[in-house]
Fold:
Amino acid sequence: MKWIKRIALGLGALLVLVVLAAVGFVAWHWAPDIPRAALEDRWAGPASRFVEVDGMEVHVRDEGPKDDAAPILLLHGTSDSLHAWDAWAEGLVADGRRVIRYDLPGFGLTGPPPSGGLQAERYLRVHFGVMDALGLERAIMGGNSFGGRIAWTAALERPERAAGLILVAASGLPTEPTEVPPGFAVAGLPGVKDALRNTLPRFLIRMSLESVYGDPSRVTEGEVDRFMAMTRRAGNRDVVLGRVEFGEFEDLSHRLPEIAVPTLILWGGEDRLIPPAAAGRFEAGLPDAEAVVIEGLGHVPHTEGPERTLEAVRAWSRREGL
Structure:
């Protein structure tokens, strides 16, 4: 009987250690939601404004000369924010271009809608709503990953609003990712989703960023800070963790030949999320497209290597007269 008591005591002690470890983990990584207003001083800035579109206050930045040339309208990817384009915006505005970007619904300072889901129709409605609010008849629509999907779908649905396309590792082709960012993989594990509702391990954010960089050592603490803050914006985790349906686009890749505008396709040669071969598939499907694959960069080449990617944008823009 003594050995039974010893086993029982051992199991009890193990259970206590597990509980203490869990409590310690939660306490160490405790990170509840933050209201948008508390984030604005750091993440909005003087160039920011909030535009009322489809029941949401959409965080927008509109910089550069307001002349008759078609502006460049940039859309970020899943879980990202308009800040991903900071280096591009700075460089293009210095070139005399007008650059507009906004936080997609469910992300950044825009956050989720007060009601309803975030299906494809809503993303397109918001996209054209932002253009209308800024008085834009046409724009060169650029986007990374999920933002790229919105850009080319918008050009497909409303061709008269698109002067050109810049697709940066755009999604939308029936291609499975070769490597899922750790944050998304972990969030799908049983029980973890609820735990992440009020916790946010910094190492998990860093690992996820490193997985989409060609060279993980290029990830900065500032980037980790930004993703931590934007994830904690009230309501955004509900989107990321699947409490709000979002991003459900049907496969429209068979309609790519209908998009007749000049298109630049930019890809990182080390993209482990959407393989670089997708660049060639986009180029083959679009009537007026040029693909540029930049070695050493990953799934967010505009953030990881802004100088090299901007060179490609400038060269393409000169050739196309845009």
User: Anything to note?
Assistant: The longest helix spans residues 2-28. The longest strand covers residues 56-63. The CA atoms of residues 45 and 253 lie 38 Å apart. The two ends are 85 Å apart (CA to CA).
